[in-house]
Amino acid sequence: MAVEDAAALAETLALVSNKSQIRHAVDIYETERMKRAYGMQSASLVNGKLWHFADGGEQEARDKGMLAEVQGTYYSESTNQWSDPVTQNWAYGYDAERAIKEAWNLNTSAS
């Protein structure tokens, strides 16, 4: 997250063309980064619960959902969210600079 923060901040500052835009730029940066941070925090809380099921039905369902991954065979989804392809793309394929540019274009043209 810190690397994303740095990339997003650098992009935000690069988009500022005069001092009067600084407050607007900081607002965009803060809004975009908070959305991302809250999303990652939420995913981390789910992950914490997932790994601490007591022995029983929930734990067995979780383990069954990870079976292909554990066996090293192809899988398109996993109950291990950090191995799940959709979650991996969301977590590791995120482009912080692009997100800032898009937010800037959306919020600057509207203001």
UniProtKB/TrEMBL annotation:
Coiled coil regions in record: none
Q: Where are the transmembrane segments?
A: none
Origin superkingdom = Eukaryota
Named from the GO MF annotations, one term is: monooxygenase activity
Q: Which UniProt keywords apply?
A: Monooxygenase, Oxidoreductase
Sequence similarity = Belongs to the paxM FAD-dependent monooxygenase family.
The name this protein goes by in its record: Salicylate hydroxylase
